[in-house]
Structures are given as C-alpha cells and as structure tokens.
Design goal:
- The protein is of the alpha/beta class.
- It is 42% helix and 13% strand.
- The chain is built from 27 helices and 25 strands.
- The chain has an eight-stranded parallel beta sheet with strand order 1-14-13-12-11-10-8-2. Strands 15-20-22-23-24-25 form a six-stranded parallel beta sheet.
- Helix 11 crosses helix 13, helix 15 packs across helix 22 and helix 26 crosses helix 27.
- Bound molecules: glutamine and zinc ion.
- The site of glutamine has 16 residues, from loops.
Amino acid sequence: MTQLHHLGFPRIGDKRQLKFAQEKFWAGEMTEQQLQTTASELRRHNWLDQQKLSLNLHTAGDFSLYDQVLDTSFLVGNIPERAKQSEDDNSLDNYFRVARGRSQVQSCCSAVHNHSGETQAGEMTKWFNTNYHYIVPEFDSNTTFSLHPENLIKQIEELQSINVNVKPVIIGPVTYLWLGKEKDDSNKLDLLPALLVVYTKLLTLLKEKGIEWVQIDEPILVLEIDEPWQKALQTAYQALQPIDIKLLLTTYFGELKNNLQLACELPVAGLHLDAIKAQHEIAPAINFLNKDKVLSLGVISGTNIWKTDLNETLSWLTPIHQQLQNRLWIAPTSSLLHVPVDLESEQKLDHEIKSWLAFATQKLQELSLLGIALNQGIEVISDVLNDNRIALQNRHNSLRVNNPSVQTRVEQITPGLGQRKKPYRERAAIQHQYLNLPSYPTTTIGSFPQTSDIRETRKAKRLGQITEAQYKESMQNSIAQCIEEQKNIGLDVLVHGEAERNDMVEYFGELLDGFAFTQFGWVQSYGSRCVKPPVLFGDVSRPQPMTVEWAQYAQSLTDKKVKGMLTGPVTILNWSFVRDDLPLQTICNQIALAIRDEVLDLEKAGIDIIQIDEAALREKLPLHRSKWKEYLDWAIQAFRITANGVNDKTQIHTHMCYSEFNDIIASIADMDADVITIETSRSDMELLDVFEEFNYPNAIGPGVYDIHSPNIPTSTEMITLMEKAALRISTEQLWVNPDCGLKTRQWQEVRPALTNMVEAAKQLRAS
Ligand code: GLN
Ligand code: ZN
C-alpha cells in the first residue's frame, strides 16, 4: 500500500478566522483562552475534513499562531533576551512580542517592512521563493537551547484523541540554524551540538508519546550549500539516528542537484522530494536510496492553484509504484500553506474558471484519488479520471484562455522593441531641456494617503451603490485635492495620487483580460496578514486604456509635470497566481505588451514622465543562483518592452521597494530607466555604495523619508542623507523623494514631511 500524507495545511481558516482572532486578541478584545479555543477549532475543522480522505498519516504541528519558524525558536528555547518580559519565558505574550515588537508591524502594499517599537520585533524575511515571511531566529555566542514541547505535544494529543496515526512535523536542526542570523561575530554552526541535544530530547519524547514517524523538514537541501553545511547535515542525522523513531527527511520547492546523494544517504527512514520540480531526480534517488527506505513523492503542487492532471501524473507514477510498492508514499510537493483553503467557498467565481482550479482542500482530494488509483487500480476511479481529462481539455482549448492575436504579438517580439531610440546620455540632455526641472528635483512615489472617504467611494462603486458618473466625480475631486496639496508643498513632479487603486496589482488585473478574482483565495503572507493574488488564467490583453483618463485630468490642473503611474509586468506576474501551461517568460511578455500600450497611450495623451513600478522584481529570483541570469534576462527584457517604446523626451521612472541591489545591479542598469527611485532612508545611504561601485549611469532618487514610520523627518535630516548620497552619486543624477508610496500615512504627517523635503532640496540647490 502506498501511504498518503501531507506536509502541512493552511491554518488561517477558510474565512480567515485566525486573522480575525489574532487581531481581536492583540486589540484586547479576546482572551488568550478564547484565542486558543479558536485555534483548536480551526485544527479540528481541518482534521475532520481530512478524515474523510484516505490519509494514512495525519500531520500535527503545522498549525501556528503566527509563524512556524518562530514556533521552532520557542520549541528549542531560543528566545531573544529583549523579549523575555513575562514571568513565563515561554508565554504567548513573549511570543507575540518577538513576532510583532511592541509597536505594530507596518506594511505597505504587498511588501513587508518590520518596524522597531519599544521591543524590537524579530526580523522578517521571505520563506524560500514563496510570498510567506518567517521570523528570523537570532543567535549569538550566549545562545543556549532548552526543550519546550508543550505547544507541539498539545497538537499531537488533540489528534491522538481522535485515534489517528499522527506524524508530527518539525523544522530540521540544520535548516533552523541556516534560517537564523548571528547577532555578533559567532558562528551559528558552532551551536549545532547544543541544538542536537534538544532535538534528541524532543524525538525521545515523541517516541514515548507513541509516535512512529516524524516529518523533519530540511528544505535547505534545495539550495547551494557549502561543505560545512553538508557536513552539518551528516553530523545531525548521525546524532539523531540512535533514537528509535522514523524520520522522513523532507525537501521542497526544487531540485536537490548536488545534494541529492547526500540527502539519500543520510541515516533516516525516508526522503521526501518535490516530484514536480525535481522529476528527473526520482530515478537517481531510487538508486541512491537503501532498499529499506521510504521515498515520499510530492506529486501535487503545493504552490499553485491549478487542478492536477491526474492521468498524466498516474502515467509516470504507476511504474514507480510498481517498482517501490510499499516504499512509495505520496503527498503534495510542499506544505499547502501557500494556497487558499477551499475552492467551495467561491460563490461568485466564473463557473468555467472554477472548474480548472484546486485549492488546499481539493488538492488533498486529488491526492486521495491518486492513492485509490495506485492501491486499488485505475479502473476504480475511471469516471473521475475522465472528468479530470475533460476539465483540463476544456481549459486548454478555452477561448477565454487563448487569444491568438496576443500569441502572435508575443511571437513577433524583436529585441528592438525594448530599445530606446537614443542612449541615456543623449536623451537625458533632451529631457533636461524639455522638462526644465531644477537640480535635485523633488517627487513622490505615487500614492497619497488613502482617506476613509476614498475607500468608501471605491467600496460604494464596487457594491453598485453609486453611478459611474458619481464615482468619476468623486475620484476627480480626490485628484484635484491631491494636486492642490502638491502645488502648495512645492513639489516639482506631481502625481495624481492613486485614489482609484486598492492595490497596485489588483487594479491592473481587474482592467486586463486574462485575470480572474476570488472572494476567499487568501494566502498567509505573515502573521495575520493575508494576500489574495489575482488568478492569471489566460492570454493577457488590454481592452482599453486603464489610467490615461486620471493622469490626463491631473495634468489638466497644473503647469507642472504630472508623472503617470503604472505597475510593471514582472511585479504583476510575481504577485499573481500564474497559469502553469506557458513559460513564465511568455506570460510576462504578454503583460509587458499590454502595459506598453498603456505607456504609449499616456505619452500620446501628453504625459511626459511615466513611472513603472517593479516592487517585486526580486521576488521570483530562482533558489539556485545558477538560474538567476536566465530569470533576470527575461524579466528585464519584459520591463524594457514595456518602457522603452517612448520618444527620447519622455522620461521613464521605475521604483523598487527595497534596496538589495548588490547582486543584481547589472540587471537594474540594463532596465535603462531614466530615473530609479529606491528605499534607502534607513540604511543611511550605504546602500548606494553598489551604485557608486558599478558607476550606475542613469538618475537615482534614494528615499529620504521613511514612510513606514509615523516620524516626520526634518529638512536637516534629509539634507544630511542627500549629502551622503552626493558623496557616492554625482549631483546631476540625484532626485529627492520618499522611500515608497504614501497611501498608508495620514495627511497631517505627509504634509509637513514633504514640505521639509522640498525645503531640503532648495537648500541643496543653494549650496
Ligand atoms: N506607486 C506605488 C505607490 O506609491 C508604489 C507602491 C510600491 O512600491 N509598493 O503606492
Ligand atoms: Zn515601494
């Protein structure tokens, strides 16, 4: 019998129940007891659902009140000193203190920023190449470990009480160390022996609890790890081997490449591979694995939302099953944390599109069907297999997916499409003359405060409570007010303020063909924050202009230049659930052509400066560095296709919400945007070093106003920052602007901050 299991299930609940409970608890409107009860109910609900399926092992420990890596820190007693403020170190109070700091974690758009409060929150960073963010463990030379298994044991006992075979999931010791950061000059690998003592205790305890199998996640096996880390894996699993418990060493998100043999030979009872991303590694893995080891294959994508092709999967899986028999287990590729909970919640989604999708609940049903086909014979589910085939064929042939004119346009892309007419130096001179801007020109990143008025208007439109004309009038009023404010402040390049946009990707997705939107397709981004990515299901095209009217209206109100505001193709791609039937490059090019048309329409409408945001350019950098170049090449080319069809006098800006440019600076320069604005205010301009070293040729606006903080910077502070910038970048290249958009701030903060910024620019010009 092939055994069925999963690596983890979403914990937010089908209607984001966890989020609402967390937020109530933080607001003091819910007791700890009530929060824990909600958590237990969510777990119970998930397990009851899963019990209907023929899973052989039930996963415990995949639930978290905030983050599974933070849970691991508490499990092994690695709590930052500064957070130990409650009597019981292990208390929920301390837990949330590390998670959130004592002042709120701030977020802007879909990007994540951590803010220091009285107790500084743990740093947050992306979990491999997903949009999930974990709390980075902290290590120093005084770090010690101790076992605090209560939370995990509670989840195990809940499941045992309903009498199922429980497989706890824990993060492996080596990945745990890898994920963390040294706070001094100690070496975190030196902590391994002490950490292994705690893991030994934990596994011994689990054995006493009657556990047979433990899923131990070591996803760093899909990364390029050097010898000390490979050795650490050997050391760790040799140390844990004497404990009489079976370990399923679990990897996901990619191929093991150089680590494959190492992973196969570690002294554990089984190995889990992502059989979709690393299908060609299955055969060598079978060769490397001892004949008594289990091979668990991830056969259903844990990161996309498309229905699995069950027939195709069975065609390659059946021979492996015949070969391995009981030694074959099947599961989703990764934890299902990265997909929405239940497609059945969708009441408004187009029926046809819905028939192509599978969320976490449906994915486990698919797993169960594959299990039946393998264990009992394919004929038992022939009807279902037939339905599955038809659904996939319909999707493949659908006229809503296929737009021949878009496909032809993509095929006809030539390199020239991404090429500006003149090189930067020459067009910069033309723009200088034509735009007539002062040195140290001032501008903003696009959005202005989203007042409750603005949000109410958008909501009323969505609910059909106001007419198109009323909506338009109200938005025009917001634009007019925003322009008026910017005039009073004295900014040089104005924006319309983005009042009509709820989200920088959703706004465009709703106006483009090829996208669908769900009601409950939420995925946890971090803590209580969830995102609901658009579903990019078909060829992308632009039925009509999307922003021209607003930009044109704004421009009509002022003699100053108004900057048009768009989201770039890579960011739209990276923040959507993307179809799995075309190469990413092709999809990205489709979006690029659609946004290119918008750029050209803006230009035609008299908008001389156009910003194309690429906040998420870095997000889908492949896990293996050897594949970075390929990704960056097509991503940058897509940006160039979008941006570079304009005339020399039109100035292209781009904006990026982060400042890690060291490893991609050549690609950034290759975008050839006339101006790039970036986030730098908190790093004291040190992040410009890489632009200096690279001799970055085009203009740069290093952010001088930290928009994630309510603080209002003085002009002296901003002058100091710009002077530091001027040490690295020539003054003709510099712009003065905030770090990011202002939509999460209040007017009473933005007004004085920008006034100070304009004053700073004036003084810089004078000196
Ligand atoms: N133009 C967008 C804004 O100002 C940019 C947002 C972002 O970079 N995340 O809101
Ligand atoms: Zn930004």
